[in-house]
Each structure stands twice: as C-alpha cells, then as structure tokens.
Design goal:
With 779 residues, the chain is an alpha+beta fold. It has 6 domains: 31-85, Orthogonal Bundle (Arc Repressor Mutant, subunit A); 93-129 and 139-172, Nucleic acid-binding proteins (OB fold (Dihydrolipoamide Acetyltransferase, E2P)); 179-243, OB fold (Dihydrolipoamide Acetyltransferase, E2P), CATH 2.40.50.700; 265-512 and 572-643, no CATH class; 516-564, no CATH class; 658-758, Nucleic acid-binding proteins (OB fold (Dihydrolipoamide Acetyltransferase, E2P)), CATH 2.40.50. Helices cover 29% and strands 26% of the residues. The protein has 18 helices and 36 strands. The strands form 11 sheets. A 5-stranded mixed β-barrel has the order 5-6-7-9-8. A 5-stranded mixed beta barrel has the order 10-11-12-14-13. The chain is globular. The two termini are 47 Å apart.
C-alpha cells in the first residue's frame, strides 16, 4: 500500500486494475470509501487502524465511530472481535480446514464453520511461503491436506480463483484427508461407499482396499484416486463399526466435524500422574456446607453453592452467596499436554448417547469433581447482596472444600416443595431454605435488570439400551435450575469485574445486539400481528421482553419467540468487551465450568495470576495469544453445536425410517422460497416440504409475513401454523426427513393478499415483457 499522504493505492495482491482510493488525508472519507477500504484491507479494519490509515484526529475520529456504528446497524458491516468485516466476508483471522488442492497442486481451505444461510463457504488459497520466501522455514508453519489451521486472511490476487488467500499462523490439528461413509459390498469383492452427508459423493473401493470392512459398516476412507470420468476411488482406513450399532450415529458427527475424541497417550499419562492438590496457598473451607446440585445422571460436579444471611448491621435483610468452582487450573498447566489437548477440543461435546469430554476422566470425573465428603481444591467467590438484590461487594478465594451433599435438581426442589427425603430432610433448614431465600433476593435484581426471557422449551432424547430413540421429553423447568443458573451468572460477572479492576487481559463472553437489518425483518413480521417494535439502534433486551409478553397465551406465542430468537446475534468469546446483550450485562466472562469449557480455564488462570493465589496463573504467552484462542474456541463451540444438532436429526430420522407413509402433527417452523420446514414437537426434529409438492397453485414467498400463499386461491401457510404432514422419505445417515403436506392452506390475512395483488401485477407485466408463463407449483 502506498505511503504518500492523501492517496491509498490498491492492494498489491489485487492483479485486476482497480482505480486507487483518492482521499484527502485527515478528512473523513465517504461511506463508500470506508466499505471499499475494509474489503481490500481486512487486516486494517478496526476503528483504530481506520483512523490511522486516513489520518483522522479529534472530532473526525468521533464522526468515524458514528459512521461505523451506522454501517453496522444497517447490516453493511459486521463486528467480529476487534475488527469490522463486510457481511458474508471472512474475518481477518479465522479457523480453516484444508480440504483439497487446485489444478496446480496448491492447497485450498474453507472456513471450519460457516452459516448455512450464507450459502457455500468461500474457498481460501493457502500461501505456504514464509516471509523470507523459503518453503517450510521462517515463521510460517507448513500444513497439509486435512489439517485445521488458524490463518490470517487477505483478498485474493487472482480474481479468477478463490476469493481469499491465507497465511497460516498456527496448525491446530493435523488430520488425514479422510471422509466417512457406509460400506456396501459389490460384485468381485469390491465395495461402494455411501456418503453420510447430504452433499456427499458416492465412491468406489477396489477389492485390495476394502480392509476388514463388512456390508453395513461405518468406515473411514481416504481418496485413493480421482479420475476425469466415473466415481472417485477410495481406500478404507478404519472400520468404526456397524452403522446399526449403539453409538454409531454420534460417531458420524464426531468424524464429520473432526472432533478429537481419543486422548493421546501422553495426555492420559499426564492425567494419571496428577496427584491431589495440597493446602499450599489455600484457605481451609472444609467446614463450609457447600453442596452440589446437578442433573440426576451427572458424572462430574464442578460447581457448589452455599448461602447465609449477612450478619452485618449495615446490610439488613442482605445475603451472602458463595459459589465454589473446581480448581482445574491447578492440574492443567499452560502448554502442558493436557492443556494443548484441551485447547484442541475447546469444550466438551454432549450427545444423547455419550459425552466427548474436554479433559480425561482422571481430571474431570475424579480430581476436579466436587465429590460428596471428599477434599477438593476450588476457586470460590463470596458475594454480598442487599435485600433488593444489588451486589454490595465480592471477594475471590483459593480454597480446599468438602462437599456436604450431592443433590439432583429434582430432589432439592422436592424438599423445598414439602417432600423431603432422608437425605434432604436434615438439610432443609440449615442449607436449602437459605439457598432459596438468597435466590429470591438475587431474582429481584434479575427482574430489575430484565435480561432477554425467551420461552423455548429444551427437548431431551431418551435412548433405549440399544442406542435407538425411546422417546423425546421436555424436562420441567424448576426453580432449582433457575437458582443455580442465576448464581452462576453472578459469579461470572464477578470474575469479569475483578479482572478488569486488576487490568488483567481476559476472554469475555460477549453477545452483540441485533443488527438494524435483522431488527427491520423482525419489525415487518411483528407488524403483520399488530405488534410494534420501535425503530432505532438503541434497542434493549426489555424491548423484546415486551413483545414476548404481548404474544403470551396467543396462537402466535411460539412463532414470535422463534422470530425474536432468529433476530439475535450469536454469543462468542472475545478479548474485547462489548457486553452481553441477552443477559443485559456490561461485564461478563465464563468462570463456572472449567472442566468443560476452555474459556473458563483461561479465566481461572487469569484470576490466580492477577490475585497472587499461587501456582497455575496465566502466562505472558497466553496473554499474547488471546485473540487466536478466542477465535478457536468460538469456532469449536459452533462445531459442537452443529455436531449435537446433526446427531439428534440422524437419531430421529433413524427412529422414523420405519414409519414412512404415516401422518404426523407438526408446526411450520420455517418458511423459505423453496418450501416449508415443519417441526414435529413430539420428536424434537423437523423436515422439509418442497414447494413443488404443495399443489398446482403458484405459491409466492412473503418474507415480511413469513408465509407462502397461492396466487390464485389466496390459501397458504405461515410460520407457526399447526399442520398435518405425511412422512414421504427418511434418510437416517443424512438426518433428513421429507414430508408431504396433508393440511389445506388457510386464508391469508388481508395484508398478505394485498401484497400478492401488487405482486401479481408486477409478475404479469414482467411475464408480458419476457413472453413467459409462470412455472407450476413453485417460484
């Protein structure tokens, strides 16, 4: 880029002729210039770098800040950690999977996670040359096929190829260029590989390369040869097991997403060598009756709670709440084998039939599990609240504790509800009732804060002993759940506040507010129901709560909750704090689950180091790498969510595969130009009704009303409609269900018909000019 004041030349990587950006150095550039600069220089797309590049100072910097905020609210820019990007663009630093080579043999990668609604993930050409111009030397790691990497992203030099190039910062995981599928025997001892992904490709396996695979086995293969004609040929690398066996369904997601699920031997050895923590640098809190409250089937217990009235005369009616969290940082030290493996995983992954843990069982289920009656090291926060639920202060402590009891949500709730058992009876007055009183106190603060209160029931799949679906249930939402949740939230706030006060860098849990573009989509939809959403970028969580309250106990309740949820941004991890919109909190960091989330482990280390609490503090190397760590664990969180969701889809599709032709009660959960998504509440999954199967009418998609309606009849379907569908096809390996609509469409509201009349006039005029007729059945 040129250095002359007042002129910024085009990026040297851009081979196509592009007119230079002619600007006046020190003057605020136009919106168009800002957007173009960000597209061409993603590595300099922060507020500070933009001000520096254009020579802005004083009031011009303030004007730039307002312009960037407006562009973000209008959906022209998106904020990712410390940078701004164009919507649909890759952030300056991202996690990539190297998937193939181009015709010249150069490596091509794609983002490890990419939203489905943004189409095909962009290709990225990998630069393997180091800054010194020497292959494999200098600071650039050399990667290969199947590797997962953190990379710096640049605009592509050749506009005829991939949209981006990338320089590798770090190799996260070296993986073979493998894929999975179901092995089917073929004549002559050969085999065929049936894909497990919806867009997968069938492959041939020569007799010499079938290994020990048998018909119906789930296998991992590598591509042996790609020809110009015919199917690709593959070689069996390993046999996972029969596709009909227990746990095979979750193994598909584990392999498809590249989730590490086998601990390397050095990690196991390091975990086995760990010894119980000592009292060094610890306070003895073993007499404090902290208890754990978890799901009945929980195998590890990483948080414990205790509450008591505040004896201080200066805080009448106040309470003291103590939250103790397993001291994982004592056992998992920075850059150890355990630490490197935990970062590769990022978090534990929870499937209906198994858990893929972040840490080995010796750590997660033993040394760091707050077992009843056993000495265990912990980090504790002692929080003081006034009777109005306002926090008066807090302190952190590194302790040795001994859990007084292990309770489940249900038996703790039963005791409070007047049905104590032999275990909870003696605990009711001294422990449980003070906990519930403390929850009533901090709930007053929550009600005043008004976080986003979505009503989206969580369904849980219960399995039979053979690993197949037994039934889908909606567990009750108890006060015991809410008590633990709110106490953990308050502990997380304390962690962020303490580290900020100590000027200690950390990883926040941040949640940006909805963009102006998403707000407008929601506003148009709500208007069709007679519900208003104020315009402007200063929307808060309580604005959405008012909308949800208006829809409560109406036929539109579920639909409105879903649309409000879709309008929200995704929470991520970041070293830069922008607050948490959904919780309506300015400072928030994950502290309460270091057994299963790497972000919490970083926060623990930061607290240990900044407060001088002994060994296991954060290192300078970690502090310098927080940007990359935050990007990685955010990606791994999305990876886990996708794997968990796909596993549920596959389990339900497998469960329903014997019921093709049957009718089911469902609800329209999504409306697109291509058709309708219909959820089956009794099964926790959904399927698709192609628009071409809805009938002979010409159906028009109305985004504002979230509807498909017939041009001729005016009958159609809206988001949230209760419908009856017939199962036409179930593809278990892909987790796909296809339905046929049985229910007749209903009369669309007047506003929808008016929209269609205008649309028909435009369509007739366009067809008259083009000399065409509309296709039957779909648009």
């Amino acid at each position: 880029m040129g250095k002359r004041p007042g002129k910024i030349g085009r990026a040297s990587r851009d081979a196509a002729p592009v007119e230079p950006l002619n600007i006046v150095h020190g003057a605020l550039p136009s919106r168009e210039v800002i957007l173009r600069f960000i597209a061409e220089h993603p590595q300099k797309a922060s507020k500070r770098e933009l001000a520096k590049a254009f020579g802005l100072k004083g009031d011009s910097r303030v004007e730039l800040k307002h312009m960037l905020r407006d562009l973000e609210q209008e959906g022209m820019l998106q904020k990712t950690r410390k940078s701004l990007i164009r919507p649909g663009a890759l952030p300056p630093v991202t996690v990539l999977d190297i998937t193939t080579r181009d015709k010249d043999g150069e490596l091509i990668a794609r983002p490890a996670e990419w939203p489905e609604d943004q189409g095909v993930a962009p290709a990225v050409a990998i630069r393997q040359t180091s800054p010194a111009g020497r292959q494999g030397k200098g600071k650039t790691p050399v990667a290969g096929m199947g590797d997962r990497v953190v990379a710096k992203i640049f605009p592509a030099a050749d506009r005829g190829g991939p949209a981006y190039t990338a320089r590798i910062i770090k190799i996260i995981d070296k993986r073979r260029g493998a894929t999975m599928g179901v092995f089917r025997t073929a004549p002559g001892g050969a085999g065929r590989l049936l894909p497990i992904e919806r867009r997968g490709e069938e492959m041939l396996i020569d007799p010499d390369y079938t290994g020990d695979a048998k018909d119906g086995d789930l296998v991992e293969v590598e591509i042996a040869r790609l020809g110009r004609f015919g199917l690709p040929r593959a070689k069996v690398l390993s046999v996972v097991g029969s596709v009909a066996s227990e746990k095979a369904i979750s193994m598909i997601a584990i392999h498809a997403h590249g989730i590490p699920h086998v601990f390397p031997q050095p990690v196991i050895d390091e975990a086995d060598a760990a010894r119980p923590a000592t009292m060094s640098h610890r306070e003895d809190w073993r007499d404090v009756p902290l208890i754990t409250i978890d799901p009945a089937d929980a195998k590890d217990h990483d948080d414990a709670v205790y509450a008591e009235p505040d004896p201080s005369p200066d805080n009448p009616g106040g309470v003291i709440i103590t939250v103790a969290i397993a001291d994982v940082s004592y056992y998992v030290r920075s850059n150890s084998a355990l630490d490197r493996e935990a970062l590769k995983r990022g978090n534990s992954v929870y499937f209906p039939d198994r858990v893929v843990p972040m840490l080995p069982e010796r750590i997660s289920n033993d040394l760091c599990s707050l077992k009843e009656g056993v000495d265990r090291p912990a980090l504790a926060v002692r929080m003081v609240f006034s009777k109005e639920g306002r926090k008066a202060g807090h302190t952190f402590h590194r302790i040795m504790m001994k859990s007084a009891a292990k309770l489940s949500y249900s038996n703790a709730q039963a005791a409070i509800d007047g049905k104590p058992d032999d275990k909870t009876g003696p605990m009711l007055e001294p422990i449980l009732k003070p906990l519930w009183h403390a929850y009533e106190v901090i709930r007053r603060g929550r009600e005043r804060r008004q976080p986003l209160e979505l009503d989206m029931p969580e369904r849980k799949i219960l399995l039979k002993p053979d690993g197949t679906v037994d039934r889908v249930v909606v567990p009750p939402r108890l006060d015991a759940h809410k008590l633990i949740e709110e106490m953990m939230i308050q502990a997380n706030v304390c962690a962020a506040e303490t580290l900020e006060k100590k000027r200690q860098v950390l990883i926040y849990r941040v949640h940006d507010g909805p963009t102006l573009a998403k707000q407008e989509v929601l506003r148009e939809f709500l208007a069709t129901l007679g519900i208003s959403l104020a315009k402007g970028g200063n929307v808060r969580a309580n604005n959405f709560n008012g909308i949800l309250a208006k829809a409560e106990n109406t036929p539109h309740q579920t639909m409105v909750n879903e649309m409000v949820l879709r309008s929200q941004s995704q929470a991520i991890y970041s070293p830069e704090n922008i607050g948490h919109f959904g919780l309506n909190l300015m400072k928030y960091a994950h502290f309460t689950s270091p057994i299963r989330r790497y972000a919490d482990l970083i926060v623990h280390r930061a607290l240990v180091g900044s407060l001088g609490l002994g060994e296991g503090g954060i290192t300078p190397q970690e502090e310098a790498a927080l940007d990359d760590i935050a990007a990685e664990i955010s990606t791994f969180e999305r990876r886990a969510m996708a794997a968990e969701r796909e596993t549920v889809d596959r389990l339900v599709a497998h469960h329903l595969s014997t019921r093709v032709g049957e009718e089911f009660k469902g609800r329209v959960s999504g409306v697109t130009k291509s058709g309708l998504f219909v959820a089956l509440p009794d099964y926790g999954a959904d399927g698709f009704v192609p628009i071409s199967t809805l009938g002979t009418d010409y159906f028009i998609y109305d985004e504002a009303h979230q509807a498909l309606s017939g041009e001729r009849t005016g009958l159609g379907y809206r988001l949230g409609d209760d419908v009856t569908v017939k199962l036409a096809e179930a593809i278990p390996l892909a987790g796909a269900l296809r339905f046929e609509m049985i229910s007749e469409g209903r009369n669309m509201p007047t506003a929808v018909r008016s929209f269609h009349k205008a649309g028909r006039r435009d369509n007739r005029q366009a067809r008259k000019m083009a000399g065409t007729r509309p296709p039957r059945g779909r648009r």
